[in-house]
Specification:
2 domains, TIM Barrel, eight-stranded parallel β-sheet, 14 helices, Urease, subunit C, domain 1, globular, 499 residues
């Protein structure tokens, strides 16, 4: 009997019959998508009938690039898993950054991550280091020293030069630009910020700024003006972090300012998240009782996560700021139930080319279990901001399906291509993400547009999002057929390149 060789299927995995949205080419049609060895190897009309070792019927589902989060403070696997369940295939720490970038990359590689990861160089930690503070605990050290007097002072000329050298070294190690927590240190000078922006311009990278708070009702506008001035003076790419929380009720003027800067050819980008409350360490200077005099903030807008306690007096707030400056809080800067405030939040989200970014926060245990490492599943008494678990699906549920003020293709673009393009010059590897095209990275999501939704609330912030059938990272399903796989950690490092 003659033996006949049967050719192997062309692709490892084929996703059949989904509505495929590729934001770069404008494709929005039913297609079959093939994946092999971590790469998209086919985007074909169903009539072409591509074959795969595994084939999955995705009719009625949307297939899009995996979501790219430029602003995640999650280094714990459990917290990053929450983000995977929200469709996030790449989660980057760009606002705060790390001071020892090589160690940060090595630590993440050693523990493994369910999604791709990367870090900026930390201006704040570099500044703390040259001011004599111990920053060996990396980002944890920032929160611990958030109200330290040595950090809240003007640097000497020599210290400023040392800080720039530290930042340059981090960039050489692959940092994805420079994260600048400017709003946490009012004592830093404008000249210092300009020098940091100049370093970014000289090395062909970007800065990601939490703008300065000037303690006045229009502080967001003044902070954004400083960013634009740095872009104009140096030519650097300047990115404004969480424009919703720093601009608040000045958002219309801020958006007009940034639009004018872009019309003049300046590279100024922005991001936002769809919540009216922020989160930070309780020791932040702008949360001191004497500073709560602008933008409608009051003491009872501060909710302390370790004890689930709403602040009730200035004395209690001062006590916690002295004893636990790193303790995480939620701060209600806009009231989502108020129509006017909801309008400010919505306009922050919907300005042209604003990226969706979560500002995902670490997990906080009850005070009795402080210091524990969380494994999966996350215990019910663990707290965080709901944006950690629900930002991207909240955009799809709220702005697309319920409010109807974003169409699905544009929402996908803001979650994928827009952040990828923000990083296109910083990390050339990002040019292969945020797209559904042959040769691009197989970082993909498949979701039901009628049911995708966030479940996380301020009371239950670790509830996972629903509606995702597949979340594929580097070609490997981490959410497979609607089921989370905790046995795989396919995330890889995203590194920057400097001139």
């Amino acid at each position: 009997m003659m033996e006949v060789a049967v050719p192997l299927p062309e692709h490892d995995l084929v996703l059949l019959g989904a509505r495929v949205i590729d934001p770069e080419t404008g494709l929005d049609e039913v297609r079959d998508v093939g994946i092999t060895a971590g790469t998209i190897t086919a985007v074909a009309a169903p009539r072409d009938r591509i074959r795969g070792r595994r084939e999955v019927d995705c009719a009625g589902q949307v297939l899009a690039p995996g979501f790219i989060d430029l602003h995640s403070h999650c280094n714990e696997v459990a917290a990053r898993t929450l983000q995977v369940c929200d469709g996030v295939t790449t989660a980057l720490e760009l606002e705060a950054g790390q001071v020892d970038v090589s160690a940060a990359y090595n630590d993440m590689a050693a523990q493994g991550s369910p999604n791709h990861y990367g870090f900026s160089a930390s201006w704040a930690l570099a500044r703390m280091s040259v001011a004599g503070l111990d920053v060996s605990r990396q980002l944890d050290a920032f929160l611990e020293h958030i109200n330290a007097p040595d950090w809240h002072r003007r640097l000497t000329v020599s210290e400023q030069a040392q800080m720039i050298d530290l930042l340059r070294g981090s960039l050489d190690e692959g940092a994805l630009g420079i994260g600048v927590l400017l709003g946490y240190c009012q004592e830093s000078t404008g000249a210092e910020y300009m020098e940091v922006a100049g370093l970014a311009a000289d090395t062909g990278t970007a800065t990601y700024t939490h703008v300065r708070d000037f303690g006045r009702p229009d502080s967001g506008l003044f902070g954004a003006s400083e960013v634009v001035a740095a872009a104009l003076s140096t030519g650097a790419h300047m990115h404004v972090c969480h424009i919703n929380s720093t601009s608040t009720r000045s958002i219309d003027a801020v958006q007009q300012l940034l639009a004018g800067a872009r019309e003049q050819g300046l590279r100024v980008t922005s991001e936002a998240y769809p919540y009216g409350a922020g989160s930070t360490g309780i020791g932040a200077a702008f949360l001191h009782p004497d500073a709560l005099t602008h933008d409608g903030l009051t003491i009872d807008d501060i909710f302390y996560l370790p004890t689930r306690e709403r602040m009730h007096s200035a004395d209690r707030l001062r006590e916690l700021q002295a004893t636990d400056p790193a303790g995480l809080v939620i701060v209600n800067f806009l009231r989502e139930h108020d129509p006017a405030d909801l309008g400010f939040l919505t306009r922050a989200m919907l300005a042209p080319d604003t990226a969706v970014a979560s500002d995902a926060m670490p997990l906080t245990h009850p005070r009795s279990r402080a210091g524990e490492t969380t494994m999966w599943p996350i215990p019910d008494d663990v707290m965080t901001h709901p944006r950690t678990a629900g930002t991207f699906s909240r955009v799809l549920r709220w702005y697309v399906r319920e409010l109807g003020i974003l169409n699905l293709a544009d929402a996908v673009r803001r979650c994928t291509l827009v952040p990828a393009e923000i990083l296109r010059d910083v990390a050339p590897s990002m040019r292969l993400k945020g797209r559904v095209q042959v040769g691009c990275d197989a970082d993909l999501v498949v979701f039901d547009p009628d049911t995708v939704a966030d479940r996380a609330t301020y009371e239950q912030p670790t509830l996972t999002s629903t509606g995702f059938q597949f979340v594929i990272v580097g070609g490997l399903p981490v959410v497979d057929g609607g089921q989370l796989r905790t046995d795989v950690r396919p995330g890889r490092a995203v590194r920057g390149e400097v001139l």
